[in-house]
Specification:
alpha/beta
Amino acid sequence: MEVDIMDLLEGKAHTRYSANMHNWGSVGSITLNHPSQATPAPSPRPNALRNKPSDAHTQEETYRLRQDESLDLEHIKVEHKEARCCNTKYSQALKHFLPCRPARKDKNLLPSNNAGLFSYISVTWLTRLMMKAYKRGLQPGDLWLLQYEDGSELNSARMERLWEEEKESAKFKRKPELWRVVWRAIRTRVVVCMLISIVQNILQFLGPSVMLKLVLDYITDPQIDNLYAGLIILATFIINMGRGALFNAMFVVGTHTAARVTGAMQAVMYKKVLRLRTGGERLSAQIINFSNNDMERLFEACISCVFITAMPVLFTLSVIYCIYILGPWSLLGQGVYILFYPIMALIAKAQSSIRVETVKVTDKRVALMSEILNSMRLIKMYSWEDSFAKKISGIRREELKKHRIGALLQAVSSTVTPSISILATIVTFMGYTLSGSPLNSAEAFTIFSVFNAMQFTVGVLPFTVRSIAEAKISLTRIQKLLELPEHQKQVGGLLNNNLALQIKSGDFAWEVLNIDFKQKKSGGASDSPAANKLKNGDAKRDGAVQGEGKHTNGHANGSSSPIKSSQEDAVTTNMIKSVDTLFDINLSIEKGKLIGVCGSIGAGKSSLISAICGDMKVQNGSVQVNGHLALVTQQAWIYNDTFRENVLIGQQYDEEKYKEVLRVCSLESDIELLASGESTEIGERGTNLSGGQKQRVNLGRAVYCNRDIYLLDDPLSAVDAKVARHIFNQCIRGHLAEKTVILVTHAPHFLEKCDEIVVMQEGKIVEKGTHAELLERKGEYFDMVGREAANNSEEHHHEEEEAKEAEVEDKEEDKDKGKLITEEARATGSVSAKVYYTFVKVSGGWCIAGIILFAIIIFTVSRMFSAVWLQHWLDQGDGRIEDRQMNVTLYNLTLSDAELKGSIVENPSLWLYQLVYCLSFLLLLLTGVIKGIGVTFRVLAGASKLHSHMFTSILQSPMSFFDTTPTGRILNRFSRDLDELDVRVPFFLEFLLQGMLFVVGQVILVCFIYVWFVIPLIVIAIIFVMVDVFLNAGVREFKRLDNTLKSPITQHIGSSISGLSIIRTFDKEKLFITRMYRFLDRHSAALLVFRLSNRWFTFRMDVMAMLVTLAVTIICVFTKGMVSTALAGLALSTVNGVCVFIPFLMRMKSEFQSRITSVERIIEYAYGLSSEAPREIPETRPVGPWPKNGSIDLREVQLRYRPDLPLVLHGITASINAGEKIGIVGRTGAGKSSLISTLLRICELDSGSVLIDGVDISTLGLHTLRSSISVIPQDPVLFQGSLRYNLDPFDVHSDDAVWQALEQSHLKVVVQRQEHGLMSKVEAAGENFSVGERQLICLTRALLRNSKILLLDEATASVDVETDHLIQATIREAFKSSTVLTIAHRLNTVTNYDRIMVLDAGRVKEFDTPTVLMSTEGSLFREMMSATGVTSVEQMLALT
């Protein structure tokens, strides 16, 4: 079949060809050979294409079909390989030497890789976008797409290959080191940059040394030769121009290299995360910190590492030339430079050490912030903001202590660095003059200029050393991640093909891994891979708080039953503890069987599911899985995408199959409630879905994927009786009838219909058999469900409905229909003056700023004074100039400048000149340290205040803000932006202030020497300001885009880690990796353009600086004799120094202006967010304990979640007496959880009022209200820390009271079995406790608070039947005098309540006693009870 391939690529493909593509599958390739001779091209058949002569010179085009999110023509990857006679991998890069190149056909791709030499070096290809940035700002759509060779996919694959080679080559010799891998990946490009740097350094040296000496010698010589003067001027300009062009080229190449490395490393980390055995909130925070902060260090190191060559080159050249000029005495100054390096090395080492310590604390703060943001609803419900604010504040104070030490070292470094050239000059001239050697102006200012030329190198070296050291630390931390143990999927191998799953004598353990990404790995290489791994836990054991519990749980970091802890693979601080969880598991499951798994809380049910998935370590025995797995987790995982995509999870859309899945999972009615139906965007973690809807989407995803074995971890606990029956009959026993299903459930009426039941207790299978067989045995199963079976009751669960539930029908009806997540606000134009004003204000105010500025001015004057004093000293000569001038006049003599002045060593005041020259250096050091400490410490003080304001602002924001703002976006402010403010802004600000004042001072000095210089200076200054003001806008815009496009990466990492088990089980790693590639490449494009825009700006500034140098040189040469040689030397050396320094200064200026956008973003959150009502209102605070009785009056309550959304509650009026027990029931979207939110003022009323004990709650402070009500939420949340902290964060209860509450909640025995009791460690998000245990901990919190009002939001959804009865008994006993409002989770639990409130569509439909409602024909409550098989009052009463 003949097909025009270009038609295909342009979207004109033949129908049959497209069909063939789909038949090939999602991965394939076509290679077209174009012979160099005019022969017909072969047809594009895969087999025929392989047969080409080995010696043929052909042009190849490979058209690769990539496995991507969908099969369409957009996903065809084209690799064009041109015919090459030399066929080297560098041929594309060598094309940059062509002066001009035609533009690439695809205008959407970044043009840099196809730019000609001139455009590439000067970044001219960026000009059009820079102009657009100035005129109207930029949006993400204005950016180019990253070219494939710069993309994360290609470079991460190469990095992974090199890492494997490194591990192989290091075997039995040394430890593998990631920095070696990165070096191998970039060494060619770095070597090229180093070669460019060497040539650039030679040119940089020639200008202020050889050329300056030639100019001064010409000025000293009385003879005039205009041709010679013109050649000197031309040579000076060419040298400066070459230096500037090479400097820019070096940076452009380095920036591309850095973008490739950071994109690749982030992709490598992400792919490794998807292969880890364990995930969790703590790991998520660490990876986000790597992505946000460590990549910045790595980027800087890739660019600045080339400066390592600058010092030896310039040092060698300066030694040779200075000896030529002054002789051996010049070695004194070079010795100062040699001594300088050990000092700076010590400072750099100290800075690196402090950085390591600081990173530890920063990681800790970011991890806690991640926990807080993910649990904000619960924190507000409990009114725990103050406790977490105190905790964050303590960590922040510790972090600032480390930053201040670093700031002090930075102050010393920033003072010593610019002072070293002055000290070298002073030492050289002091030694030279004390020896009696004559010193003339040409020699002195040539040496002075050479030392000044080395100033840039000296200044950059500490920055380079620090960058490399910090990057090495970052790579060491990342390496520890790459060495963590990986997940192993359980796959085939069963001899009996009738079996779907077989576990023989299986002992399983959770690996509790100490993740210490902050310290260097100790110990030698080990043959055992596990011995080298670090673990996902806290590396330090802070006494009892860090005590490890021995639990069995269904999550990745621990377990919950009383068991022993094995420490087989413990290796010093790299310890890997295996917490034994499941014991002697023998399980054989035939294909097509429905297996029920039950047991009490913490029995190991979820761990069994995890063991089958391969998330646990197999200690003994074997696991064999014959087929592909599908997993439905106990806590549903939803990611930020459309409703349909959450079901499809990257599968090809099949309408018929999709509709069937919606039907069997009872999702059809839910789609009707969504604003844009199945196209509605679902928020991060499913914020705009109820719990039941999330679980059904979770189930629908598994069903749609059509797998062989289904692992369902209690999915029916979140849905009501009718829906549960529908799902069980239509989905589990219907649609999945031919599949193997393992169902974890507590419901006897579902268990009895299973083919076999597995009963677990304390990590063991204690019983197996059918429902009838197990009841006859009267063992554990009978004790668990016997009473329920005897009562013939059907236990069902109402649909979970979080406080967000009612938002199902409201939240999504946002302004943009179906759109929930708001676009990130992004300022345009220049950073507003208000940002600078606020920054100065929080950093100490204008008075402090004025003092610091004055110190910087004194420091600048001190730097300039040494040069001016040297000129004055040289001009005084031997002190007898006036006598010689009289002789010249009287006798008409002609004397050269040197003859007129005489030798300075013969001056009687020589000692005075030498003394002042030395004292000026001491003044320089003193003022330098003062200004350094002043700038850095005040900026840190401002950063501390801004962080405090931002954190407080976040805590006081309403829940609607968190529902529409991704966690990653907020976390970006507390990680990346705050890191910029803490570390980068002080450095850039200090450097920029002293650098700009120094340049201005130097230019003014030259104007005093040469008045004519003012004219070209004014012209150049005007152009300079225009470029700076108008076109520097692009730098800021690109930095804003860089910040904005970083958030999706952070969000994707967090979301992927939380859904790790699901992504792996469904084999969707490639899908999520591809998405990560897309996010990384979009951000890399923004980052690359941002960095190159700095070069665009700096190069043009550099050209203007060259024009300044040219102007001064012309003036000096053509006005010889008008000023002394010393003054001319001072002017030329000053301008040469400025010319070399200005590019670096302009880069720092651009960096500062772009990084101040981080301050802008922090200030936006610190002062620009809307706030909830005040936490405390002293005027309305009730006197004494409140509420005393607990009566609740609802009066015409109307509620909407946001002003632009419809009502959720429609005029609810009800009166609840003190001490009444009220059951709240209703279908999805009825408004049950919204009513709970109303009582806690999670959302403010639209109209109406709520009175508790006669007090209108809208008049109270939020803390007063929320701290007076006990809540047991449906989603149990625990925080990292001790168990006691989780129960009593304010430490207001005694240990006895805590133990008593634990006994009432039936947790006392479990806690007593912990090694450290109440001080046992709780992992992030409570991952070392089962969901049921977490719910019991939440019950314990409520018991400790012991309020007069208790709100239960489906609080026992994840506990077994027996435990549920115990909890209900506890609630009846402990809260017998309290008012209890319970959103019904199992209808039998509220049948003995005083009254039942039935809600429907936000209205109260029924509100009476259970008996009355059950007796009323047609009542909604009766219909709901009938669905459970209860049809009479007698049957209902029997349930209690």
